[in-house]
Amino acid sequence: MGPLRSEAVVLRSLRYGEADRILHLYTPMRGRVGAIAKGVRRTRSRFGGRLEPFTHADLQLHEGRSDLLTVTGADTIHAHARLRDDAAALDAAGRACDAVSRLFETGDPHPEVFHLLCNELRLLEAGPARATLANQLAFRLKLLVAAGFGPQLSACASCGEREHLFGFSGAAGGVVCEACEASAFPLDEEAHGFMVEALGRPLAQAPDAQLRALRQVERAITELAEHHGHVRLRAAAAG
Fold first, then answer.
1. pTM of whole model > 0.90?
2. Which homologous superfamily does the CATH classification assign to the domain defined by 1-130?
3. What is the pLDDT of residues 152-206, one digit of tens each?
4. How many Cβ atoms are within 10 Å of 228's Cβ, its own excluded?
């Protein structure tokens, strides 16, 4: 209880009352938290535009008896203002924040998720051409790993067979062989290769693939999130 200070990314901002906003924040050491910024919508608010969605800020907060923290000060680290100049980049940023919000909705610390999100927002702002389906899927694959249910890709998730891996099963947690593919959907070699490379490379070096393969990857991510995280992610947008 009392004052605290933390970096945070503003995931979402909602109007509240006449001049306030409720903020959904993601922080490195407190996970996802809610906060209220009082008077932020007034013309002469001391916060200015420092609490807009996607902003990476250094916040001064007060923790009281409410579930919501109160923002008492804010310094911008990175506003990501240029995201708003490109519709595709802005949409991809929104989907990235939404995925983090759904997969990591508690106050558990995940500093690696915070830094991954900051990295994605920087990449999208620096090069709007990165707002591709491949980039979004590479980001989500890394989120799944951080959440503890990344895909098994080196052997059949059901029996351990390392050859003839023709399908993917969200329930099993990864690729499956011909003998175990009853509950799986077909997974092309290109889609399998994309997932392996996306998880092995930095986000800035995410691979690309044909749309058919990318849609298979998206289905794999969706099934993993639903079966193991009990979360339904918004569809990724083709860029």
1. yes
2. Nucleic acid-binding proteins (2.40.50.140)
3. 999 999 999 999 898 999 999 999 998 998 789 999 999 999 999 999 999 999 9
4. 16
